[in-house]
Request: fold
Amino acid sequence: MNMQDLAIRFSDTSSYDGFTFDVQLIPGEVEVLQVVVGEFEELPVYVSITDSQLLCIVYLWTEAEVDPKTRVEMLETMLEVNIPMPLSSFSKIGEHYAVFGAMSLNSSFDEIVHEVAVLAENSVDAITAMEGFLV
Amino acid sequence: MSVFKKIMTALRGGAREAGEAIVDANGIRIFEQEIKDAENHMSKAKHELTNVMAKQMQAGRELERIKASITEHENYAGQALEKGDESLALEVADKVAKMDQDAAEQQSAYDNYASHADRLKELVRKSERIIKDHQRQLAMIKTTESVQKATAAITDSFASTNSKITNAKSSLDRIKAKQASFDDRLKASEELDDELTDKSLDLKLKEAGIGQQSATGQSVLDRIKAKQAK
Reply:
């Protein structure tokens, strides 16, 4: 499935589990699809396709927002809750902390929509849970 | 080369700009060339393997044919001896001796082909492993770079549309506010529904002459009369 197909399929999906989707293609060296899930406008899911996998990423906070006093505690907590968090994992890209889900290139559209919806919910949950570590 | 370590070193390298190559383009080209070379080796080895295996089967068939012929001629020699024809028996025995030599040669050729095939099979397996490993490592590099480029594209897109990536806490506050306002609206609409249902019920009751009735001149007069009667 290529990015354009994915964008069209998302646009055609009026509702999934009560969520609506608002998509936008972001041009660049690597094509990225921005998917806004329901009311989570502030935390869009970014979908990109590499040679070996399909990646869905939500950027959570930057290094500048981390309270330096409890940084190590925050990192440990993130590692600890990584496995319990359904379908997603924590990561860090440059200065950005993120949650992401990696999927097979053979994933069906239903699986991708499910992943994207769960990721959006996870990101809100994660920030809610980690709020105390942020300034 | 351990790509994992290379990626780690590159990422931990401090002042790395997002989008900067983990392994320079030349490094990736060399890596891709190595994969291509290994694939070439493997395809050559497979081609050779099929040849060797075909020759091995031929040698096997030839060996069976000679062995059968040896048994056959040994029988002939026996029959000649039974008939007392010693010179004919010797002639046949000479032929059998020559065939024994042929059989030994075929056997050694067969063994050679077999061991050559084994070596080639091992080579193919090794090449397959190397190719898979190289491809996995290349995928790691490419994914790392792709994610960084994607992040750069997203950050650029935010910068160009002048909308800044808000910080996590304020994002959360806004989402919560939206959810709360949605909850409020839901609650309000439920309350409104309740009121409307109450009102329509009152109306029905009134029409049925049940419950509190609105005052009419007649009902007031009736009330006054009732008081006077006391």
In short: Chain B touches chain A at residues 16, 18-19, 139, 142-143, 146-154, 156-157, 165-172, 174-175, 178-179, 182 (CB under 8 Å).
